[in-house]
Amino acid sequence: MNNFNYLDSIYNKKAKLYKNINIVKNVQICDLTLEADGEEMAGLKFKEAERIEIAKILDEVGVHRIAIIGNSPKPTRGDIKSAEKILDLNLKARTNGFVKTKEEIFKCYKIGLKEVVILVGINKKAFTKNTSPKDILEKSESLIEFAKNLGLHVSFMGMDSTRTSPKFLKKIITKLEPLFDEYVIGDSLGRITPHGTEYLVKLIKKWTNKPIHLHPHNTTSLAVANSLTGVLSGLSVVHTTINGLGEFSGLAATEEFAAAIDMHSKISLGLNYSKLHEASNLVSKITGIKTPPFKPITGKSALAIPETEETQEFMYNLNLENKIDEGMPIPPHLIGKNVKFSIGKKCNEFTVLYNLKECGYEISNNEAKFIAKEVRRRLSKRNKYCLITQNDLVNIYLKIRDKL
């Protein structure tokens, strides 16, 4: 159990939404790293071995559902073969395919998938010239019935739900509700806000008692906030990707959404944070897309104490009193990390004292000041962003120890 709701701001509990929380049991993540919103990010294409490796680590993380194929359109033979091999792994997570045509639905059925997410655009503003609302309803009905006749579990995604008129959205949901098993709110262009998410989730819950998903695009960095608000309002499933990969600005990052839920609600998704870090690093390595150091949760500086002397002195003294957690955004041990004092161009005595003690070296404050001055001298020659490791610091210390 990872829940760390005790860290939540006291003022959150005063907000109107928190007084009317409607969290369902067993909130789940559906990870789409291997599906269109991950793999079909511009410039990406995973190899078969990479897809299998990512699927394995996602299962170790503990995500509840994994999309392993789809929304290509027309998956290649290689995509299908990879999906078959992933199914052979007998993962604990539920697996599904994202589909838009009967051909794709049938391919998912043939390879052994039990679940599909059917995508149909429902925003009338985005209809092509010769498409009518009636056409969309008939197409949706036909696709869902085809999948259900094959015995598949169907989640129906109304693409662009967040820009669809309430009148037509209600018609879509109430008309198709007897057919689908779950409904997916597609925020396909990332236009909704947390306030709008709360309103929309509660509105849709008046029209159906079936589980509701959110597919949150991150156009203005609101995907995680929208997902959190949605869960507090009654969502059952949120679509995410490792590192927030995806089309346009990506989706909510799996690791960030998990931490948001664990901090700001009384439930826990139960994910393995140590494995989440592994997954983040693996996806970064495979894609070649480096994780920004300041990225929440998995960035190397996200929970590293800044190197300004005032801050590090304060945190150093808190650490001596075993109260360092009180000065951290999230106590690192809760998400599989250790406390780190950043070592860079503003290196100071407290940087040195903490890091060398971590490595087994006890030194005086004056010695620490001397070492810090030497670190600053060396790093001043480097341009741009620059941090060094504890091992680098130890090596500098050992080289100048005789001068102390």
Draw up the topology in text.
Layout: H1 16-19, E1 28-31, H2 36-39, H3 48-61, E2 65-70, H4 77-88, E3 94-99, H5 102-111, E4 115-121, H6 133-149, E5 153-159, H7 166-176, E6 182-187, H8 194-207, E7 212-216, H9 223-233, E8 237-241, E9 252-253, H10 254-264, H11 273-287, E10 304-305, H12 309-320, E11 340-341, H13 349-358, H14 365-379, H15 390-400
Parallel strand pairs: 1-2, 1-8, 2-3, 3-4, 4-5, 5-6, 6-7, 7-8, 8-9, 10-11
Helix pairs in contact: 3-4, 3-11, 6-7, 8-9, 9-10, 12-13, 13-14
Main beta sheet strand tally, sense and closure: 8 strands, parallel, barrel
User: Helical proportion?
Assistant: 40-55%
Overall 3D shape? elongated
Strand content: 5-15%
Number of domains: 2
| H/E series | HEHHEHEHEHEHEHEHEEHHEHEHHH
Top CATH class of the largest domain: Alpha Beta
Structure in words:
- Helix 3 packs parallel to helix 4 (77-88), helix 3 (48-61) packs antiparallel against helix 11 and helix 9 crosses helix 10.
- The two termini are 48 Å apart.
- The protein is built from 15 helices and 11 strands.
- It has 404 residues and is of the alpha/beta class.
- The chain has helices at 16-19, 36-39, 48-61, 77-88, 102-111, 133-149, 166-176, 194-207, 223-233, 254-264, 273-287, 309-320, 349-358, 365-379, 390-400, and strands spanning 28-31, 65-70, 94-99, 115-121, 153-159, 182-187, 212-216, 237-241, 252-253, 304-305, 340-341.
- The mean pLDDT is 94.
- It is 42% helix and 13% strand.
- The strands form 2 sheets. An 8-stranded parallel β-barrel has the order 1-2-3-4-5-6-7-8, surrounded by 8 helices. A two-stranded parallel ribbon has the order 10-11.
- The protein folds into 2 domains: 5-287, Aldolase class I (TIM Barrel); 304-403, no CATH class.
